[in-house]
């Protein structure tokens, strides 16, 4: 069972999401919160697998709440809820460790799929939207700061990381580099271990912020 915490200051949004998610045999909404501070308290109490977090909330915004939950509740994954797919808060939340984001008017099946994807440890990345968002805000950084952590990567791992940052799936990476999908998956897992990042979303952020990938390189 995937236990979900809903954090949104709009009661109707929470009710709609709860109705959708509770209709699934493997998902249960175990708590709700109307502001960021309450979300942190509830996360400590119920230890959810997935937190669906609004970015704009009273008392404590979703960005600060995300940081605290990920620091205080090991194993919790946060998915950001936003009205617009290009949002400063969303980029900040990805940097803070969120596993992805969903636009609030997403289709019910996409919401359900997103919760399951994040619960099993993958990043919820819609390539076209997420690459655009990362490129938008990473492009504002005049001088990307090289990360010493990248020195631990092999040339092949750097190639794979660039492709991840461009939104390619493991199967697409395998096809591009003439590898088996299993080998591509192994490379991605090894990169995440070496760089101490929790999922693909964090690899994308690091690739842009370190200058390994630039907005103009998007394909």
Automatic annotation (TrEMBL):
Residues 146-211 form the HTH luxR-type domain. Pfam families: GerE, Response_reg. GO terms for biological process: phosphorelay signal transduction system; regulation of DNA-templated transcription. PROSITE patterns: HTH_LUXR_2, RESPONSE_REGULATORY. Residues 3-119 form the Response regulatory domain. The modification 4-aspartylphosphate is found at residue 54. GO terms for molecular function: DNA binding. Keywords: DNA-binding, Phosphoprotein, Transcription, Transcription regulation. This is DNA-binding NarL/FixJ family response regulator. It comes from Actinocrispum wychmicini. The lineage of its organism: Bacteria, Bacillati, Actinomycetota, Actinomycetes, Pseudonocardiales.
